[in-house]
Amino acid sequence: MALASNSHRATIESKISYQHGWNESFSVIVGSDEVRTGKPSPDIFLEAAKRLNMEPSSSLVIEDSVIGVVAGKAAGMEVVAVPSLPKQTHRYTAADEVINSLLDLRPEKWGLPPFQDWIEGTLPSEPWYIGGPVVKGLGRGSKVLGIPTANLSTEGYSDVLSEHPSGVYFGWAGLSTRGVYKMVMSIGWNPYFDNAEKTIEPWLLHEFDEDFYDEELHLVIVGYIRPEANFPSLETLIAKIHEDRKVAERALDLPLYSKYRDDPYLKITSSKGQ
Ligand code: ADP
Ligand code: RBF
Ligand code: MG
């Protein structure tokens, strides 16, 4: 595994020195000051493959920049693009695959060993916390999909939300006066509806006989399921969300996830997460 960047070698080394274990993760590091021309020229990637003793054609490039994708293809390599900005995927069409975040990288698609941290269709994460009063959404969940989602305001959560890519997540939901429930949610722009605003949409896996707008809802998010996607029809979107529900319901019974049911954040009634 090599790190091949348009930054200068010294800058790369200084930058990764802040991340424990990163330097040791790469057997080769190439900076643009070590080759004739930087990206979009293929030089950096060809030099990296050479030092790895690999053929360019059996190398996989993972890139967040458009010029890097161009460089990787010019080097005769396969390229997975992870665009650094949302809604920019159209600029990356030269890549062999465009994914939404590194959570969606599947090494086995490229003849590499799969990641081993996925468990029953879910990727565990350190828990993260969001909460606040339930707000009105676009009024679509129950009406159009038959799937109510207790929307939270994204205000005040720009830090947490920028740390976590859009996608389908799951965890536990605490409602101040009612209890703790299993929960599956989407965070993002709902590609099927192409929303202008990012929304947080938790579906509590419980039948309630009334609405609970304005009630305090606290979420402990414990894992990831899949990227948000577009669908050919409403029926296929609905079917996929029901599949997500099953995945979440099963996973939350695993000790790894069920232990967070007792997180104090789900029980107390302060108004903000961290
Ligand atoms: P909105 O667009 O306003 O979010 P929805 O059609 O998505 O409207 O309905 C969400 C509302 O339905 C929630 O705010 C909540 O008050 C209520 N609700 C009832 N059952 C559930 C449930 N199981 N999960 C989430 N919300 C539910
Ligand atoms: N919307 C999408 O456009 N694409 C998705 O892949 C998607 N996945 C979802 C998964 C779950 C578990 C939930 C609860 C919602 C998902 N939605 C998705 C959001 C759905 O479109 C949204 O809740 C409704 O539009 C209500 O605003
Ligand atoms: Mg909703």
TrEMBL record:
User: What residue range is the signal peptide?
Assistant: none
One Gene Ontology BP term is: riboflavin biosynthetic process
The highest taxon in the source lineage is Eukaryota
GO molecular-function term, one example from the UniProt record: ATP binding
Q: Which Pfam families match?
A: Flavokinase (PF01687), HAD_2 (PF13419)
**Known EC number(s)?**
2.7.1.26
Query: Which InterPro entries does this chain map to?
Result: HAD-like_sf, HAD-SF_hydro_IA, HAD_2, HAD_sf, Riboflavin_kinase, Riboflavin_kinase_bac/euk, Riboflavin_kinase_dom_sf
Q: Kindly tell me the pathway this chain contributes to.
A: Cofactor biosynthesis; FMN biosynthesis; FMN from riboflavin (ATP route): step 1/1
Riboflavin kinase domain boundaries:
123-253
Report the SUPFAM superfamilies cross-referenced here.
HAD-like, Riboflavin kinase-like
Q: Sorted alphabetically, which keywords does the UniProt record give?
A: ATP-binding, Flavoprotein, FMN, Nucleotide-binding, Transferase
SMART domains annotated for this entry? Flavokinase
Q: What is this protein called?
A: riboflavin kinase
Give the originating organism.
Citrus sinensis
